[in-house]
């Protein structure tokens, strides 16, 4: 069955109109005077309420991710959000996509916290292990660019071994040395929770996923049409490695806006989605590629236009029709959205979609409307696009049948 | 300068420029952040009085094996590996290090101060002053390097660019690829803060030392010269006018005069 995870980046919705003209970057050096913790209090609760609402609507998963010093991603610690969801929901998978494991010192911390989340949630954790963007990993968290992948690989080995071991062991790594590795608690799901690797097209990441049979998740903001080449290359690699072509090996993120009619979709969501594209994605090119982070092969395949002097301070205004026509946004009536989602799922060959149903500075009311329409009118009609693989749950959670979620203390019921 | 290839015991294959009379006192020059540029005027001038070797760091130009160097000790020992591979016998070389090469040279000297005849540091990395932060060279766009490295923008265009035109997509791509190797390697000892606690080892530096600073270094401002002087009270200090961080390329003659004068005096003192 095709699966859908409700995903929210948790953007700061109060960036000023002249943000791009006035500030260098939405990420790394965005001054935190733009953040107001009093407004932030209400915002976190609104965003967490939406994730819980998505569980109630029947989404298969609810998703959180990790960014640092970022005006469109207010979850430096996704595990804190996931912990509240683990207790306040009981059905949906909790997809933490993920923890940048090269940043945790020692990375056993991730093994422990993910184990806690899996146990608290009754075995509902999907564990993401991103290498991490250069903005987060190198500029915000100070990891040496040329050693980031090596440190990531070592952290991955440590976490997998820590989850698998029944006895303490010694770990003599290059970046982490621990005389007594002994993961208490350990996860419910065996041999480990489903592992998802967010990637952006490097062949090393395809192979890493295939070596370990992990899900490859392309979390692009640029939509399914632009993703075709990258996903085709992934599936070619899957075939070349002799692996089966289960669509559940791959996931994709898509911005979605559903309304009663196509015209309503534009009227309701356009300003919020344009806020995201025209303000939130303003990342200084200097932070995108610290020397040593990317391999030479990847540089050869990348456009470098943004590094040229003549293209600085160009702030093209995305328009609604460009975004919709280009597939960056799938928007419209339930029928329109269903048809384009089907195209996405089939052309990219994915068994799992991360649905970005809250975008930019979208209001709570509109977000719930969008999510409700998608869950009721669209999602049910996309469930069986891969009939041959409907029962393939290798990349999905295996929770306890008998599991607990929080109840309010008796005295407090009715007081809220 | 003649170029040849050298292989160290660790297995790093590097390019070395060599010049000067083989019976002249040996001098090893460690290049800066931008690598060995085509203009060898400074090395040629020094080679009038010394047997000069200019090894290229792996990760730069044709030199390979950068994956074998991971931390400061690796870089410093690699420096000594190169000295051994040059086969100088019992002759003690002088060491001139510029920029990142100065940081490596100072670390080498702290490890084995008595194996050097003299030490010259040209606008070296290695120290950090919170009140005078060094710009983040890992967050520069290609066209911005010139203005941080050079005092004279015209000189930057000629020397840094060389055959590379950053407005041309393929020239830009080659620059980015080369820069990924160069600064990817340099980042192992410079990222995110170019301070690997050299200051706590400088008490060992008994080699006679000259610290040279460019008057207009925008990358490592002259405030750092004062800090080096404070940490190395026995060292001599010289300022070079009309130069930025790339002083060996901007003022090769003035610099060569200062370096040769220091080393000549130094040689005289140690041989009496």
Give a verbal description of the structure.
- The complex is a heterodimer of chains A (416) and B (272).
- With 416 residues, chain A is an alpha/beta fold.
- Chain A has a single domain, classed as TIM Barrel (Alpha-Beta Barrel), CATH 3.20.20.30.
- Helix content of chain A is 38%, strand content 13%.
- In chain A, strands 1-2-3-4-7-8-9-11 form an eight-stranded parallel beta barrel, surrounded by seven helices.
- Chain A is globular and about 60 Å long.
- Chain B is of the alpha/beta class.
- Helices cover 37% and strands 16% of the residues of chain B.
- Chain B is built from nine helices and eight strands.
- An eight-stranded mixed sheet of chain B has the order 1-2-4-3-5-6-7-8, sandwiched between helices.
- In chain B, helix 7 links the parallel strand 7 and strand 8.
- In chain B, helix 2 crosses helix 3.
Describe the SSE topology.
The complex is a heterodimer of chains A (416) and B (272).
Chain A: E1 3-7, H1 19-22, H2 37-57, E2 61-64, H3 78-88, E3 93-96, H4 108-120, E4 125-128, H5 134-140, H6 148-164, E5 169-172, E6 177-181, E7 195-199, H7 203-212, E8 215-218, H8 223-226, H9 228-240, E9 250-258, H10 262-280, H11 296-300, H12 320-325, E10 329-332, H13 334-348, E11 352-356, H14 364-378
Parallel strand pairs in A: 1-2, 1-11, 2-3, 3-4, 4-7, 7-8, 8-9, 9-10, 9-11
Antiparallel strand pairs in A: 5-6
Chain B: E1 2-7, E2 13-19, E3 26-30, H1 41-46, E4 51-55, H2 72-85, E5 94-98, H3 100-111, E6 118-122, H4 145-149, H5 153-161, H6 169-190, E7 209-214, H7 223-231, E8 236-240, H8 247-250, H9 252-271
Parallel strand pairs in B: 3-4, 3-5, 5-6, 6-7, 7-8
Antiparallel strand pairs in B: 1-2, 2-4
Helix pairs in contact in B: 2-3
């Amino acid at each position: 069955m095709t699966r859908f995870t409700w995903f929210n980046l948790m953007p700061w919705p109060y960036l000023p109109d002249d943000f791009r003209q006035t500030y260098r970057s939405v990420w790394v050096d965005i001054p935190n005077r733009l953040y107001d913790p009093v407004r932030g209090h209400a915002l976190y609760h609104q965003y967490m309420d939406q994730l819980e609402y998505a569980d109630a609507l029947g989404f298969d998963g609810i998703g959180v991710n990790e960014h640092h010093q970022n005006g469109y991603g207010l979850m430096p610690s996704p595990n804190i959000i996931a912990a509240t969801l683990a207790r306040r929901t009981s059905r949906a998978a909790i997809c933490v996509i993920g923890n940048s494991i090269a940043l945790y010192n020692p990375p056993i911390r991730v093994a422990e916290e993910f184990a806690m989340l899996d146990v608290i949630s009754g075995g509902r954790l999907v564990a993401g292990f991103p290498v991490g963007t250069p903005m987060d990993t190198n500029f915000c968290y100070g990891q040496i660019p040329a050693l980031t992948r090596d440190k990531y690989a070592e952290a991955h080995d440590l976490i997998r071994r820590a989850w698998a071991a029944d006895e303490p062991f010694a770990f003599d790594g290059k970046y982490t040395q621990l005389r007594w590795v002994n993961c208490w608690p350990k996860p419910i799901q065996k041999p480990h929770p489903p592992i998802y690797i967010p990637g952006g097209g490097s062949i090393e990441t395809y192979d890493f996923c295939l070596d370990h049979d992990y899900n490859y998740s392309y979390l692009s903001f640029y939509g399914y049409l632009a993703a075709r080449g990258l996903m085709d290359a992934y599936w070619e690699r899957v075939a070349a490695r002799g692996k089966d072509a289960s669509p559940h090996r791959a996931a994709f993120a898509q911005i979605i806006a559903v309304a009663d009619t196509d015209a309503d979709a534009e009227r309701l969501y356009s300003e919020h989605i344009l806020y995201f594209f025209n303000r939130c994605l303003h990342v200084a090119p200097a932070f995108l590629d610290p020397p040593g982070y990317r391999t030479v092969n990847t540089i050869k395949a990348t456009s470098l236009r943004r590094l040229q002097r003549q293209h600085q301070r160009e702030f093209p205004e995305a328009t609604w029709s460009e975004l919709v026509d280009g597939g960056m946004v799938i928007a419209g009536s339930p029928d329109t959205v269903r048809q384009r989602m089907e195209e996405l799922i089939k052309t990219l060959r994915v068994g799992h979609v991360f649905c970005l149903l809250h975008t930019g500075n979208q209001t709570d009311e509109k977000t719930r409307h969008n999510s409700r329409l998608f869950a009721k009118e669209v999602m049910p009609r996309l469930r069986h696009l891969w009939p041959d693989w409907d029962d393939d749950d290798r990349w999905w959670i295996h929770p306890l049948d008998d599991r607990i979620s929080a109840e309010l203390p008796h005295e407090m019921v009715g007081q809220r | 300068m003649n170029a040849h290839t050298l292989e160290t015991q660790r297995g790093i294959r590097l390019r070395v420029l060599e010049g000067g009379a083989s019976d002249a006192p040996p001098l090893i020059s460690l290049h800066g952040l931008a690598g060995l540029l085509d203009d060898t005027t400074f090395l040629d001038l020094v080679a009038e009085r010394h047997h000069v070797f200019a090894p290229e760091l792996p990760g730069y130009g044709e030199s390979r094996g950068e994956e074998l160097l991971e931390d400061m000790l690796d870089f410093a020992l690699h420096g000594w590996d190169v000295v051994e591979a040059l086969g100088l016998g019992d002759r003690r070389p002088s060491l001139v290090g510029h920029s990142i090469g100065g940081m490596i040279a100072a670390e080498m000297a702290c490890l084995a101060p008595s194996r050097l005849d003299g030490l010259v540091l040209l606008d070296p990395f290695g120290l950090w002053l919170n009140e005078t932060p060094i710009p983040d060279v890992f967050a520069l766009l290609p066209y911005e390097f010139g203005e941080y490295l050079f005092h004279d923008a015209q000189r930057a265009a000629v020397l840094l660019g060389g055959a590379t035109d950053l407005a041309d997509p393929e020239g830009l791509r080659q620059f980015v690829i080369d820069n990924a190797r160069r600064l990817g390697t340099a980042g192992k000892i410079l990222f995110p803060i170019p301070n690997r606690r050299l200051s706590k080892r400088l008490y060992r530096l008994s080699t006679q030392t000259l610290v040279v600073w460019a008057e207009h270094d925008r990358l490592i401002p002259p405030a750092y010269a004062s800090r080096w002087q404070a940490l190395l009270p026995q060292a001599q200090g010289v300022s070079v006018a009309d130069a930025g961080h790339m002083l060996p390329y901007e003022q090769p003659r003035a610099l060569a005069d200062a370096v040769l004068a220091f080393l000549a005096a130094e040689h005289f003192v140690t041989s009496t």
